[in-house]
Amino acid sequence: MKNLRFILSLALATLLLSGCETLTPEAQLLESPWVLKYDSSRVGLREGWFDNDHDRSQWEETAVPGVWADENYDGFAWYATQIQAKNIPAGYNLALVFDSIDDNAVVWLDGRLFGKQMGYNIKFFFDIGDKLADGKVHQLVLRIEDIAGPGGIPGAVYLEPYIDEVDLLRNEASKHKAPESPEWVKNATIYEVFVRQQSREGTFQGLIKDLDRIKTLGIDLLWLMPVHPIGLENRKGTVGSPYSVKDYYAVNPDMGSMEDFKQLVDEVHARGMHIILDFVLNHTAWDNELMDEHPDWYTQDATGKIIPPNADWHDVADLNYDNPELRNYLIEMLQWWITETDIDGFRFDVAELVPNDFWANAKAACQQVKPDVFFLAEGAAPELHLNGHDMTYSWNMWEGVIQLSQGNADPSEIKRSYELEEFQYPQGSLRMRFSENHDKTRSATLIPDRDLNLTAWAFIALMDGNPLIYAGQEIGTTGEYVPALFEKKPLKWKNGDTKIFQVMSDVLAIRKEHLKSSSPFKFIIANNDKKVLAYKHGELLNFFNFSADTFKFSASGMDNIIYGGIVENPDSSLSLLPKQFGVIK
């Protein structure tokens, strides 16, 4: 491996890029000049912003790697630069490599569509060697679609000669084994609960009344969104965001008392389930007592004014991890919650914004109290697995299945995105798979067709990883995440679609009976024309039809139809009905 890297480094010296200077291992990035234009009206495609002769003289200069300057802008933006190469080494492929895109990209080279990529924080590349004429200047254009927060190209972009894509894609994290996770979570199905919305009362006692139904659904682990008191100062909406924490050592009195919460934990455990709490350690409410007692624990601007993490998060103040006293306080607080309430772990908000060394120390300290404590990171960075976290978000699969269901992606893109995980994540990493959560518009709104929505969820639920259900998803709840996050809007359980609940319950029962975290997983079909995906997971063959047409196929040696919309034809072939999924053994 080291010899190959040395050869590649020598080969890089023969390339020329954007200025006709010979590339060296230290000067291979496509750093400049890059230009940017926002596309809030989504006219770029129609007006041909990707064309070679399109006038970009009025586009603004921008930095790559980096995100766009307008922190409040979500949507589409276009990037452009030039590539020039000379003396491409014989015997090598040449890759155009992107370390990270936020969130999705469509790529054009010399005015022609070159490729697409979905999912934040996934390293990917395009084989570009046969597209670059020796010494010619080529135009590279990207349309970036950002889902939330400032988007752009946060990772490096560069040309690299290669022989084996494994050596090209594999990062340092993937060369390690993930630390062993608690045994109880490896096969767990997760249920996210917003206590405020779960019952008409919006209380811990209201949730206790619902535990038997949740257990029947097939849930193993309850994740409660933050239950702390919410700040009043600069709050969003009428009742504020639960992620604006006023007091780390208390529960929101609107939800009940600390004794009520402890009873909830006991009731969860009595049903054979586990429970974790959502904690926000990147920022606090402006009226958190720490603001007065320890202003130096907060991030300040040049004038000494405490600032939010970004302009949109104006209801919270950013914590400064340069202060060791802050770190000690937070770790002791986490230990207190485990000791005092017997919770089983934590989901950590915006974990990527907190230093990794803090997470490693926090996990070790919490394990002293409860050895099988569980950490779930809101983030997708592979390094989180090597610094205390047991599980990360699979944003790439969420993006893929939503886009596929809406007709904006191909099955091969989903398959490729999944396969790239092997090169990114430590071996044995647990990934949380989902088709919705509280940060996104409800999947029943994004995918209004019930059958197609269930097929998208089943695709997530039957693959490897740990499936998530966001409370209300099991009855087809619709709506945007805003303003639901900042207002009191109890779920309407009586008006829900009970068929969805039954299908989800059936699928989770199949998963529990036939699949384990160690079950081998492999895609076997990614048919772009038919819009069909299929994978083998353990002893099961799982088929997913994202089209309005019947898909006819044969499955030699697999003739036991376990579940779903698969029917046997007179000629012994099988058919998967439109917008349906099916399971065969």
What attributes characterize this protein structure?
alpha+beta, Jelly Rolls, TIM Barrel, Immunoglobulin-like, 8-stranded parallel β-sheet, 6-stranded antiparallel β-sheet, 31 strands, 25% helix
Notes on the protein architecture:
- There is one protein chain.
- The two termini are 41 Å apart.
- This protein is 25% helix and 24% strand.
- The radius of gyration is 25 Å and the shape is globular.
- It is α+β, with helices and mostly antiparallel strands and 585 residues long.
- It folds into 3 domains: 167 residues, Galactose-binding domain-like (Jelly Rolls, Sandwich); 250 residues, Alpha-Beta Barrel (TIM Barrel); 64 residues, Immunoglobulin-like (Sandwich).
- The N terminus is likely disordered.
- Helix 10 links the parallel strand 19 and strand 20.
- Strands 20-19-16-15-14-23-22-21 form an 8-stranded parallel sheet. Strands 4-3-6-11-8-9 form a 6-stranded antiparallel sheet, with no helix packed on it. A 5-stranded antiparallel sheet has the order 24-25-26-31-28.
- It is built from 16 helices and 31 strands.
- Helix 14 packs parallel to helix 16.
Using the 3D structure, state the CATH architecture of the largest domain.
Answer: Alpha-Beta Barrel
* Count of individual domains: 3
CATH class of the largest domain: Alpha Beta
Task: Tell me the structural class.
Answer: alpha+beta
